[in-house]
Amino acid sequence: MLSKNTICLWYDGTALEAAEFYAKTFPNSGVGAILRAPGDYPSGKEGDVLTVEFTVMGIPCLGLNGGPAFTHSEAFSFQIATDDQAETDRLWNAIVSNGGEESECGWCKDKWGLSWQITPRALTDAIADPDRAAAKRAFDAMMQMGKIDIATIEAARRG
């Protein structure tokens, strides 16, 4: 059953493919109900997948196959807090190697144009350090990165 508040993400006919990728890539994720169109609509035909309910790390989402009219932008992203470098690498590499693209400061895009921030907790902790000089060193190190390297962040934080 669809949650009372759900993130609706627009796709151009690929909502099910995206949902299946997220379900296999992220823990606590899965594909739910698939609704097929009861009739033709502007971007599809009767029987095509119209919507897909899915969760990404416990967050309820709805993939809508609305057609090519709208695309994703960096104005919306999923921010995933990772616990260590292995988890950071696994998630970043899964997104990028599946037709995605690298960006800066821990950001990447999946092949559907959806932005992801793969953010190690160590980075968040470093930037929040009450020692503002240590926080700035960590921040400056992050600004030079694509995928976040925790060892480099921690070294910068220590000075």
Short recap of the structure:
Helices cover 32% and strands 28% of the residues. It has 159 residues and is an alpha/beta fold. The protein has a 4-stranded mixed sheet. Strands 5-8-7-6 form a 4-stranded mixed sheet.
Describe the structure.
It contains 5 helices and 8 strands, in the order βαββββαβββααα. A hairpin with a 5-residue loop joins strand 7 (107-109) and strand 8. Helix 4 (132-142) packs antiparallel against helix 5. Helices cover 32% and strands 28% of the residues. The protein has 2 domains: 7-65, 2,3-Dihydroxybiphenyl 1,2-Dioxygenase, domain 1, CATH 3.10.180; 77-158, 2,3-Dihydroxybiphenyl 1,2-Dioxygenase, domain 1 (Roll). It is an alpha/beta fold. The strands form 2 sheets. The chain has a 4-stranded mixed beta sheet. Strands 5-8-7-6 form a 4-stranded mixed beta sheet. The longest helix is centred in the middle third of the chain and has 13 residues, at 85-97.
- Coarse shape: elongated
- How many β-strands, per DSSP? 8
Order of helices and strands: EHEEEEHEEEHHH
Number of helices in the DSSP assignment: 5
The overall pLDDT, averaged over residues, is: 97
Whole-number count of domains: 2
Runs in which pLDDT lies below 50 for 5 or more consecutive residues are none
Which CATH first-tier class of the largest domain would you pick?
A: Alpha Beta
Kindly report the CATH topology of the largest domain. 2,3-Dihydroxybiphenyl 1,2-Dioxygenase, domain 1
**CATH H-level homologous superfamily name of the largest domain:** 2,3-Dihydroxybiphenyl 1,2-Dioxygenase, domain 1
